[in-house]
Amino acid sequence: MGEFELIQRYFAKHRTHLAVIGIGDDAAVLEPLPKGQQQVVCLDTLVTGRHFYDGADAADVGWKSLAVNLSDLAAMGATPRWFQLGLTLPDADASWLAGFAKGLFECAEQYGVALIGGDTTRGPLSITVQAAGSVPAGMALLRSGAAVGDELYVSGTLGGAALALLHAEADQQPLNRPQPRMALGGALLGKATSAIDISDGLLADCSHVLEQSGVGATLRLGNVPLAPGIDESQLELALAGGDDYELLVTLPPNSDIATLEKIGQCALTRIGTIEAEVGLRCVSADGAPYNPGKRGWQHFGNSQ
Q1: 201 with 295: CB under 8 angstroms?
Q2: What sign does the CA torsion over 298, 238, 248, 273 have?
């Protein structure tokens, strides 16, 4: 199967009204965004053996390759619009491609985002997705807006993906089919002071917010919502395991959490407070200082 047949068979049939010209030409042609909207763009690469197992279900790989990008858009409060796909394959395996395309477009259809183009080439299996969305001008959620007195909240539960990676009998959905918090991201516009998605681990990603905001925080680890199957002895799976794709947000005191949960279609749990003293401090359920063994994932170096 040649490159152009591959594109036509598995990807070009998904046409979109979001592009004036989509797949089939040298580049896509897009309409300008509506007045008062700004474009938000992100990109992630998934590599076999690093982000997913050799032999992983192709449909799960397709879903995740798009979902991790949509999670970045959610963290900015953006509405997803389109994405491009860069696909490097060792060979044109028809069965694998059919499964990959199925999972990819299941995710795309669930979240209302359209494929407008990309590239295919031969080489070790890797997938790069660039996604774009829109947000009202000046309202994008940033990492740099946390203020002293704000409260730290996290969506959903943490540690499920790390547990799945360690134990094949654990629920694999958090690892293989993460659910980007698109509805919550939109609900947070004009309400949250900062936001980030938890891809590298709670502690690592919280530290990014604190550093860019010039503040500190105390995390109350007894409040961290643990995924099913995780107990307190496995707390570090939730703190540093990563791959959760939940949102960590800062909100002013007395925010209407119940409404955010209803619109965002997920639970929000308060896990800490933003403080003037810089740095991240952790306290256990009994109030004692807690020194985590790991902070989160780094691609160039060990998880630490």
Answers
A1: yes
A2: negative
Residue 15 has pLDDT above 70, yes or no: no
Q: What is the 3-state secondary structure (H, E, C) of 70-129?
A: HHHHHHCCCEEEEEEEEEEECCCCHHHHHHHHHHHHHHHHHHCCEEEEEEEEECCCEEEE
Domain coordinates in residue numbering, the chain: 3-136, 151-283
pTM of the predicted structure, to 2 decimals: 0.91
Q: Are 70 and 115 in contact (CB under 8 A)?
A: no
CATH number given to 151-283: 3.90.650.10
Contact in structure between 83 and 66 (CB atoms under 8 Å)? yes
Is the separation of the CB atoms in 297 and 200 below 8 Å? yes
Output phi, psi for 197, to 5 deg: -90, 150
Q: How many helices (H) and strands (E) does the chain have?
A: 9, 12
- Look up residue 186 and give its two tokens: 């939109």
CATH class of the region 3-136:
alpha beta
Closest CA to 235 of 276, 198, 284: 284
pLDDT score of 299: 43
Residues 148, 205, 200: CA angle, nearest 5 degrees: 170
Give helix 58-75 / helix 94-111 axis angle, nearest 10°. 30
Q: Is 256 exposed, middle or buried (0-12, 13-18, 19+ CB in 10 A)?
A: exposed
Q: Hey, what are 155's tokens? A: 């969506």
Amino acid at 285: A
> Exposed, middle or buried: residue 268 (CB in 10 Å: 0-12, 13-18, 19+)?
buried
Distance CA 220, CA 16 (A): 46
CB atoms within 10 A of CB 167: 11
And the tokens for 25? 């030409």
**pLDDT one-digit tens code per residue, 294-304:** 555 444 344 44
Question: What kind and span of H or E run contains 187?
Answer: helix 182-188
Q: What band does 48 get if pLDDT is binned at 50, 70 and 90?
A: confident
